[in-house]
Input
Amino acid sequence: MSHSPVPRPRRFLMCEPRFFDVRYAINPWMHPEAPVHVGRAQAQWRALVEAYRAHGHTVETVAPVPGLPDMVFAANHALTVGGRVFGSLFRAAERRPESVPYTAWFKDAGFEVQQPGSVCEGEGDLVPVGRWVLAGTGFRTTRQAHHEVQEYFGRTVVSLTLVDPYFYHLDTALFVLDDGRDGGDGRIAYHPGAFSPGSREVLARLYPDAVLASREDAMAFGLNSVSDGRHVFVAPGATALAGRLAGLGYLPVPVDLSEFHKAGGGIKCCTQEIRENPS
Ligand code: ARG
Output
């Protein structure tokens, strides 16, 4: 069934990849011995910023800090819903210092930040959609953090177990096409093979109309997409997925972040959404 989904302008927080690099390996994509082209990474990142702005979205930036090569992955730093910010506590020691400049950015922007008591990697593993917050665990964010998120936002958190190390964050295996802010349950796309059998069943029950994507699309970072409800900013390698989305009435906007794939990240990883209104 084809329809014409309606876009909604978003407020995004991003971080320029001036000091981006792969210096350590905390997921299977990362190979510190392979070269990273910082100039290319910067050009790709700027193209993503331009694509967002060209479609009416607001992009704000937090200043990059030397020595923090993964700081570009803004999604990991918080979940913000209704102007309430739940911050980050990284699993890897290498990434823990990143929380400081992001917390400072939120304070300067007028938000208070609730600090997690257990490992929690922001929108990397926490995805609000419809009535729920879908929450990944298995590699990074803990179930204890899921519980904290439910208490903080007063929204039902649905814990999902990730089982494939290539899809170590929920946002590498699942994204929101329609966040349901108009009152419905919303709509998601995901790669079932990234989830435990029970979690797969939960997703099938909650989202019977979800778009299911292959492992090939997921390995091309196709599930690490950002949708405004109509335009889907998606990795150009995820061709089957983009074709399915176009058939459903969405408008795929291909943006190539191949340099960031070397760190295990893509479009969504570089993008945090600041949701100011309660939903
Ligand atoms: N190298 C980073 C890490 O492993 C990549 C983070 C990607 N971010 C994301 N939201 N999936 O932590």
Observations:
- The helical segments are 38-54, 99-108, 143-153, 197-206, 215-219, 239-247, 258-261.
- Residues 26-27, 30, 70, 73, 75-76, 95, 124, 169, 171-172, 263-265, 269 surround arginine (CB under 6 Å).
- The first strand starts at residue 11 and ends at 15.
